[in-house]
Write the structure tokens for this entry.
Amino acid sequence: MADSDEKAIEYRKQLAKQPLQVLQQHKQSIEGEIESIMSSHMQLRTALARFSNSKETIRQFSQQQPEQEMLVPLTNSLYVPGKIDNVESLLVDVGTGYFIEKSNTQAQEFLARKVQMVSSKIGELERAAASKRSELELVMTIISTKSRILQSQAKQRQQAQQAQQS
Amino acid sequence: MAEIEGEITVFRQIQKELERAINLKHQALSQVGENEMVVAELQFLEEDAKVFKLIGPVLVQQDVVEVKANVSTRIEFIKKDMAKIDAQIKDYEKKAEEQRQKVMRMQQSKAAAQ
């Protein structure tokens, strides 16, 4: 911990030495990074919703009886009557065009694994975004301090000039 | 003046190429990730599990062992491709830097002449 504290202080010193223009650029690049992290975060959230949704659906499906009547959607608005043949065996899309036949429990386990994986990725991204945000805050404070100092220096110079003239 | 602008256009072009290569690299990376997830999933399977591959609109049943081999070779293939893209990216980065220096030198000498 002490080591990372030292690093943070060192980083702060390095930043404070940079000219204002470089700091502005740095601020923009951090903002861009945060934006791209947030967009991946959104994508993962939709993926998470999809996986948990599928898991819930097959859990409900497993409680149906065979021979149960149902309406099968052919299009968004057209349904044909059908009967459930088998609630135990499902075909799972595992990606890149491969499908694996799984039992209902196995399929639920598969989806639970996916949900867990995506959740941990979301956690990672949230931590990354938080650290980028604190970095951004640091840069912004340095920028405002710096521009205040520059302004007061300019004012002093102006006053000195006026004093000389009069 | 026109000369400098020409060189700046060249610089922008190199940057565009660089961006394209980086996009390709991202694509390859996500493909490797997806394939690796499939491999991880295949590890759970018994020898007699039913695996299908989507070919066009139809699902064709495949042999588990064969599928494992296929996916692994695909990963290898994409990784080789990625190494090529990496080399390209390095090349473009170098070119972009050289061109940037060139433009800067021209701008400086122009400013000095004025």
Remarks:
- The mean pLDDT of chain B is 93.
- The interface with chain A takes residues 31, 34-35, 37-38, 41-42, 45, 49-55, 59, 62, 67, 71, 74 of chain B (CB under 8 Å).
